[in-house]
Design a protein that fits this description.
Radius of gyration: 24 Å
Structural class: mainly alpha
Shape: globular
Helix content: over 70%
């Protein structure tokens, strides 16, 4: 192996194996402090497995096909873990990991059983790998919503918190590695270098942020500990929440906790705490309930609505979300609800 190639192999492999060590660090940290970091730990692990496969295959084309199979299969979990990690910090509700991980694992296991890489390399190269990268890209797109507010801060020339920098680093690091795999001619060469740079950058950020009080990914997410709502505010919250109903602010599909807090003239923290602790639900579920009540009123007043138009007029952004939410809250479909009304 030439000197330049040896150097490339050393630094590329170092980046991938450091990624595994960083994954173990966050797994231990998750166990002791923050469950959410399991998603970060697993993200770094599957990313490192995929990169290790690329590095060794680049320098050893005769690498056993089973290692290639494992490395390619690991890609199917990179997108889901990126999405789950960012989602778990951005929303009050727990991220549904089973919904995002298990179906992908089942599908790749079935495909791997029916078409083992050892015997079907051409099928993997032409079809399966393309589907895996497409799925990875879909999750990158879905994850963007959780860093959109950070992007808006940059556009508005606002000062970023250190935790904002961390999330941007994770998101764009994974996105750039996807780009390298998808479009680069010599993916192993480029991804090896990228992996070393990405992991080294994360380690530097880790050292900088370790003692920062802003870096909540090192701490348990105890949002409301030692922060009780004063009695006066508590007594006014129901009255304040009625404003959302009276003005029908929930009909805006993009109505958010931030906008609600500004309208009600309370802090985002107080509103979130009141809805969670006193009402026993998340803010998003509260708004969904308001929208379903609106939909029920519309169904009672006329039978000329289609499901799609009814959903939009109730504040939902899509027909499928409306239909699923309606059935979940009422236990029946909109059509069944309307039939019940007509029978009365």
């Amino acid at each position: 192996m030439a000197g330049s190639n040896l150097l490339l192999f050393f630094f590329s492999a170092l980046g991938a194996f450091n990624g595994i060590l960083l994954s173990l660090y966050f797994a231990v940290n998750a166990k002791k402090k923050n469950f959410t970091n399991y998603f970060l730990s697993l993200l770094l692990l599957v990313l490192s497995i995929r990169i290790i496969k690329s590095i060794f295959f680049y320098f050893n084309p005769n690498l056993s096909n089973i290692f290639i199979h494992i490395g390619l299969s690991a890609c199917v979990l990179i997108g889901p873990f990126l999405y789950l990690y960012l989602k778990s910090y951005s929303e009050v509700e727990k991220a549904n990991w089973k919904q995002n991980v298990i179906p992908n694992l089942v599908i790749i296991t079935i495909l791997g059983s029916l078409y083992p890489y050892v015997e079907h390399r051409e099928i993997w190269s032409k079809w399966i790998v393309c589907v895996i990268y497409a799925q990875w890209f879909v999750y990158i797109v879905l994850s963007f919503k959780y860093i959109r507010s950070i992007i808006q801060k940059i556009k508005g020339k606002e000062t970023l918190k250190r935790i904002d920098v961390w999330f941007l680093s994770i998101y764009f690091g994974v996105a750039f590695i996807w780009l390298a795999y998808t479009f680069a001619a010599y993916t192993s060469y480029i991804v090896g270098a990228l992996s070393f740079t990405f992991v080294l950058y994360l380690i530097i950020l880790l050292l900088i942020f370790k003692n920062s009080p802003e870096s909540t990914f090192f701490n348990e997410k105890e949002k409301y500990k030692n922060k009780e709502i004063d009695k006066e505010t508590l007594g006014l919250m129901n009255q304040k929440l009625s404003v959302i109903l009276e003005k029908e602010l929930f009909l805006n599909p993009d109505f958010s906790l931030d906008e609600a807090a500004k309208e009600l003239k309370v802090t985002k923290h107080v509103l979130s705490q009141y809805v969670n602790e006193i009402l026993g639900k998340s803010f998003s579920n509260l708004i969904k309930e308001y929208r379903i009540e609106k939909a029920k009123l519309l169904l009672e007043s006329t039978n000329n609505y289609t499901i799609e138009s009814l959903g939009y007029d109730s504040g939902f952004s899509s027909k499928s979300t409306f239909f699923t939410t309606f059935k979940k809250i009422t236990g029946i479909t909109p059509a069944e609800y309307q039939k019940n009304i007509l029978k009365k």
